[in-house]
Design brief:
This protein has helices at 2-11, 43-56, 75-82, 116-132, 157-170, 192-200, 221-231; strands at residues 16-18, 62-69, 89-93, 96-97, 100-101, 138-139, 173-177, 205-208, 235-240, 243-248. The protein is α/β, with parallel strands linked by helices. It has one domain (2-248): Metal-dependent hydrolases (TIM Barrel, Alpha-Beta Barrel). Strands 1-2-3-6-7-8 form a six-stranded parallel β-sheet. The longest helix is centred in the middle third of the chain and has 17 residues, at 116-132. It starts with a helix and ends with a strand.
Length: 249
């Protein structure tokens, strides 16, 4: 974790937040995938480690975050976990459709079992549910379903407009993540059209590299900033103790 902080300092970013994946609270320990999320026994240690880094590196704000999967029917279980710790922010994400973790490269063949338009509709229904749950401060990789390059035949503009409206109504922020540039789809999350729909409605924005290695910290941030400006954003937000603050982009 120290390497991430030192990479952030070297890159000149204003602050860094850790957002490891919450344990798979909807599965038993035997069913959980240790490559995709923390084990249940690791959460306390994770929080302790971030707090330790905050003391070790006073030269840069280090935020305690968590990325929490939205699983329909398990909202109360997630809320109980979130209430235990002093998060600066909670990221919300959708990685699962039923038992299928669709962003897992080992399970890409399951896309062939879907009509892609229907798959997109199902995914965005889950995004809307997650936004309306009230559990999250920031919604991440809003169109993750495109990760491997699958696209529906129909125009997604109305879908983007509806989702952006729900996000604005809920008062939730979104991320512009450069992680998609490192995936087969080869573009930011979310798509520029969805980003524009969110900007038009005044949805708060953060920039994220979703780093899974220190070398990815602040990856393509200059390009992300330009993309945000082109979409119509003039500010970014940051979080402390789940309170939102704005800065000029």
């Amino acid at each position: 974790m120290e390497e991430y902080v030192e990479a952030a300092i070297a890159a000149g970013v204003r602050e860094i937040g850790f957002s490891d994946h919450i344990p798979m609270y909807w599965r038993t320990e035997e069913q959980a995938d240790p490559t995709s999320a923390m084990a249940k026994g690791e959460l306390e240690e994770y929080v302790t480690d971030v707090c330790r880094l905050q003391e070790r590196y006073p030269e840069i704000p280090i935020r305690l975050g968590i990325e929490a999967d939205y699983i329909p029917g398990y909202e109360a279980e997630l809320q109980r976990i979130l209430e235990r710790y002093p998060w600066d922010y909670v990221l919300g994400s959708v990685h699962n459709i039923g038992d299928w973790d669709f962003d897992n490269p080992m399970k890409i063949a399951q896309y062939d079992q879907w009509e892609i338009g229907e798959l997109y509709a199902t995914f965005f229904e889950l995004e809307v549910m997650a936004v309306r749950s009230g559990l999250f401060d920031i919604m991440t990789h809003l169109d993750l379903i495109k990760k491997f390059g699958h696209r529906p035949a129909y125009d997604l503009t109305p879908v983007y407009a509806d989702l952006a409206g729900v996000i604005a109504e809920a008062g939730v922020a979104i991320e512009l993540s450069t992680a998609g540039r490192r995936k087969p789809v080869g573009e930011d999350y979310p798509h520029p059209s969805l980003l524009r729909e969110c900007a038009r409605r005044g949805v708060p924005l953060i920039l994220s590299s979703d780093s899974h290695h220190p070398r990815e910290v602040a990856h393509c941030f200059a390009d992300a900033r330009e993309a945000a400006l082109v979409a119509g954003f003039t500010q970014v937000v940051r979080f402390e103790k789940r309170r939102r603050f704005s800065d000029q982009l």
